[in-house]
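Request: Not sure, any thoughts?
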Amino acid sequence: MNYENILSKAENGITTITINRPSKLNALNKSTINELHNAFKTADEDAATKVIIITGSGEKAFVAGADIGEFADFNVENGAKLAAEGQELLFDFVENLSTPVIAAINGFALGGGLELAMSAHFRLASTNARMGLPEVSLGVIPGYGGTQRLPQLVGKGRAMEMVMTAGMIDADKALKYGLVNDVVNLADLMPLAEKIGSKIMRNSSVAIGKAIKAINANFKDGVDGFGVEIEQFGECFGTEDFREGTTAFLEKRKAEFLGK
């Protein structure tokens, strides 16, 4: 599929999706959100794709925020619709994919950019990365899940400070806060993401998808995460991957998972 605002490349079990609007510092607009939805959906449905990496083009920005010009004249109804549609199409959609998503933050990740990175299953950052939710400086609040996912990742107090000050934190502080898992030089960012991706691919994609569902359940109001874990654990016993994994272990050989 051809895209105007993103690039998508599948190779060796990894689909790399790159937001490609360098002149706009890869800012998110409606068209880009729709294209990202389609690219993530296509990758998730591709049996050959075991890991998805999301990153930005160039060396300055992962995503430097939303395209403010698209909603500067919105009213209350339009604003609520913008947030609801964006969360459904992209941010919640990515978080709940059964295919692991790694965000490779290669520069500024601000506003919707940080919200997109937080919707990934985990994050890696380059040393030049800067992260923040500056929405209150524009008279609004984060609307793509930022007020929910940031406290889950860094704690309520730090999230409150980051949102209220509208400030940025550097990669080292993001690592200290637990917002990102690793920080490396820019040149090493994608190789690290691919290295971790290759480790993930050695394991059962079916089991990984069920683990994602169980872990996410712990952060959903009104959902018994332990109950979801029990359910997903039990379902694993009916899969071909379970039979292959346990048989390979008993036979002292490497498992060859089919993802079924």
About this structure: The mean pLDDT is 95.
